[in-house]
Structures are given as C-alpha cells and as structure tokens.
Write a structure and sequence with these properties.
Elements (H helix, E strand, L loop, with lengths): L2 E6 L2 E6 L1 H9 L7 E3 L4 H14 L5 H15 L3 H8 L3 H9 L5 H8 L5 H4 L7 H14 L3 H12 L12 H14 L2 E6 L5 E6 L3 H12 L1
Parallel strand pairs: 1-3
Antiparallel strand pairs: 1-2, 4-5
C-alpha cells in the first residue's frame, strides 16, 4: 500500500503510512510508492484517521484525541465526525468521554491493557476509585459487562442510617433518673420490651452514692 502525502512548501507532509515509511527506511529502500493529494488540514486529518483505523493502528485514546481535534479545531459536530469516519455518533461520543479519565487509565488504554468497553464505565468516578477498578480489571481479567457492574456499585452512594428518634416517655424517664442519681443515665428500649440502663460515673465516690440511693 502506498503512503499518503500532501504538498508542503518545497516538500511533502506525510498524512498516513508512517510505519511503512519507517520500515522502508530500516530496510534501506530508496524508493517507495506514494499517493499525493492536495487536501485541507481537515481532510488530511480525516484521511489519516480512516486509514489508521482500517489498519487498527489507533488506540481508543488516539481516536478520541483525533475526533476531539476535528470538533475543537475544525468546528465539526459529533454527527459530522461520525459521518466522515463512518462510525456511529454514539461511538464518537463514548470515545471522546474517555478523555475525562486520568492519565494513568488513558495510558492503560493506549497500551491496550484496557479496552474502550472496560474503561468506559470508569468515566465520572473519582480518579482514585477509577484507577483502583482499572487495576482490578487488568489483574482479574474482568469483562466490559463485569466492569459496568463494579463501577455501578462503586458509584452507588453510601447510605447512612439516621439515628432513631428517642421515644418521649423514654427520654423523660432518662432525664428523671439523671436528676435523681446526679449522674449521666442512658436508657435504651427495644420494640420487644427489653432494654438497657447505663449509668456513667467518673470516680468510686460517685458509684458509692448511686449504691446508697439504690439500697435505700
């Protein structure tokens, strides 16, 4: 397959085929086939993306960066990017969202340790949590579906039980005992009728005083 070039000043700019060009240099070739096209910056980017993706040369992050560049620099919409590249708009959106992940996780995707499907559920989680789950995915070989489940659990807010409001009669009895004994009294009653009475003292003399009152 010929490499793809475009005119650039007195020479040419390589659009697609960098690996073939470097391999040809390493092999000592003086000439290789090339196709020259006079295209705009946007068209050059489109051609490079299409050819590299056909050859599976781009990682999900590299594709995401290229799509984001088409949107940011050239004013394309996600739908226009999808139509130009030949993929769905949803896939464009999902890939671009990967750029929100931490550098560590993006590096794992670039090394192909994580796939887009495995990494996508991590978007939106705190970096520390997402990185922990990414490591777990690699270590345990979790599937994309399994990652969706563990990410869903990690994103679920921790529910803290509100303390039950104390019954008014129990509170009144607790206050009465506190006044009579002169010490802090805690009274906990269960629905079954059982309960617990706790009297707190800070020195032996206070305990002696409680005992005298109880014995009398």
């Amino acid at each position: 397959m010929p490499i793809l070039l475009r005119p650039n000043g007195d020479g040419y700019e390589l659009i697609a085929g960098e690996r073939r060009w470097r391999a040809s240099q390493a092999a000592g070739l003086l000439e290789i086939p090339a196709v020259v096209r006079d295209v705009s910056d946007l068209q050059a980017l489109e051609l490079a993306i299409i050819e590299n993706e056909q050859r599976d040369d781009l990682s999900a992050i590299e594709s995401a960066v290229a799509y984001h560049r088409m949107i940011d620099e050239f004013g394309c919409t996600q739908q226009q990017v999808a139509e130009k590249i030949g993929i769905s708009r949803v896939q464009v959106s999902n890939l671009i969202r990967l750029l929100q992940l931490s550098n560590k996780i993006k590096g794992m995707i670039e090394r192909r340790a994580l796939s887009m499907g495995q990494a996508r559920p991590l978007v939106g989680l705190p970096d520390m949590v997402a990185e922990k789950l990414a490591d777990m995915c690699v270590d345990q070989g979790l599937s994309a579906r399994q990652m969706e489940e563990v990410a869903r659990k990690a994103a679920r807010p921790t529910v803290t039980k509100e303390p039950k409001e104390q019954d008014a009669d129990v509170a009144a009895l607790q206050d009465e005992l506190t006044r009579k004994l002169g010490l802090s009294v805690e009274l906990a009653c269960k629905a079954s009728g059982a309960g617990e009475l706790r009297i707190r003292y800070s020195r032996p003399a206070e305990l002696d005083g409680v005992l005298r009152k109880l014995r009398s």
